[in-house]
Amino acid sequence: MSLINEGNLSHEIALEWLEDISDLDYVRQSLDRLPTRKGKPAYHRDGRMVGYAILGRTAKAAPASGTFHRRVFWLAPHDRDTLPDGQYSTGAPLESVDPRTLEPGKPGHKTERSEGGPPSPAMVALGLTLPKA
């Protein structure tokens, strides 16, 4: 499940990746208020930005702020790609999704890979599964 719904993403026309995502199990995604529809946004979080969304010409700025809601994809310094045996050796942050499930206008979702392995015994007992991606 993603915290971002498709209604927030209707004006996306492309996702721009700043690094190869094929080895990343997950990326965090946020819907940020940015001054432009396209181009690399400024980044003010710990960690690193790995990608961002580009909006089409029909995207309208918020009247009060003049900003656009755009997705930014990022990783924190304590995420699995940097600390494989750390806090997220299994499981993943709430706002994370498997980057292979992302496309313009689609929020993406978690997978077995993004969660760090096969389903837990509790998930198996409940009959719940995640896609393999």
TrEMBL record:
Top-level taxon of the source organism: Bacteria
Organism phylogeny: Bacteria, Bacillati, Actinomycetota, Actinomycetes, Streptosporangiales
InterPro entries registered for this protein in UniProt: DUF6009
Name of protein: Transcription factor
Region: Disordered, residue numbers: 81-133
Species this chain originates from: Nonomuraea diastatica
